[in-house]
Amino acid sequence: MSLLRRRPARTRVGWVVAAASRHRVPALAAESAFFAALAVFPALLTVVAILRTAGPALGADADVAAVGGMTRLLRVVLTTRGSAAADAAATLLTTSTTGLLTVGTVAALVLLVRALRSVLHALATIAGRPPRTWRAATALGVMLLVGGATVTAAAVQDPLLVLDAPAGDLVWRLLRWPVVVLALVGWAVLVLRVGMRTGRGTLRVTFVAASGAVGAWVAASAVFPLYVSVVARVGSGLGALGGGLILLVWLYLLTLSLYLGAEAARRRHRR
């Protein structure tokens, strides 16, 4: 009789979904996405300002190429439903002001720290640990701005040309996006380890969870524009507001993927 009363074992997906519901992961992801939406444009402006300042070392067209790449990414995510928002972002990115690297960087850092503070608090809730302080979020914010500028410069420029490597242009075309994906995985590993306060022996589990989260980021970025262009027909009537809502939903999918990866990592850690 005891065997008949035994409840069937849950699958891994079932455990993750149940834990996510218990920790209110959808609500945590919505909160983090809101603060991330406030920080995304100041952060992009700061990255462009850093590239303009480092222009002599990176090449005169590094900032122009970065602006073009960021604008294309926004247009892919927002699609034609958010063309007004994409046009406004392109105008901001091409604007050059003397105080962009000072006042603009401070504003971007404040908003980034608030967004990262929300992310770290959510990861601490998932892991059942005390949340990190503002200092950890500030350190991650500075690393994100500097690292984002470095990865963007490497993505739009060819670092192998500086080394005069044979067939460097072809090699870098093949390695560019794998390097960007590896940088995203490294960033996700860092955020998960800092937010969840994991130990040294859990690096492999955290790496697997971060890789899954980045894979979900790539899938969401590839599929979401198709969903917007086919299903969300109301976006064209909302104009720039529709673009902002689309961006918010996209960021929500990214944060939700990260938190589900954290739930999976937590289960593996406990096992």
Give a short overview.
With 271 residues, the protein is mainly α. It has 13 helices and no strands. The chain has one domain.
Structural description of this entry:
The structure is a single chain. This protein is mostly helical and 271 residues long. It has one domain. The protein is 82% helix and 0% strand. The protein has 13 helices and no strands. The chain has helices at residues 2-5, 12-22, 25-53, 55-58, 62-78, 83-94, 103-127, 134-156, 159-162, 168-196, 203-230, 235-238, 240-270. Helix 3 (25-53) crosses helix 8 (134-156). The longest helix is centred in the C-terminal third of the chain and has 31 residues, at 240-270. The relative contact order is 0.15. Keywords: Cell membrane, Membrane, Transmembrane, Transmembrane helix. It is a multi-pass membrane protein.
- Which percent range fits the helix content? over 70%
Structural class: mainly alpha
- In the residues, how many domains can be counted? 1
Per DSSP, the total helix count is 13
Spatial extent as radius of gyration: 20 Å
What does the average pLDDT come to?
74
Distance between the termini: 28 Å
Largest sheet, in brief, is: none
Strand content: under 5%
Total number of β-strand segments? 0
Query: Helix and strand succession?
Result: HHHHHHHHHHHHH
Oligomeric status: single chain
Runs with pLDDT <50, length 5+?
1-9
Looking at the structure, what is the overall shape? Answer: globular
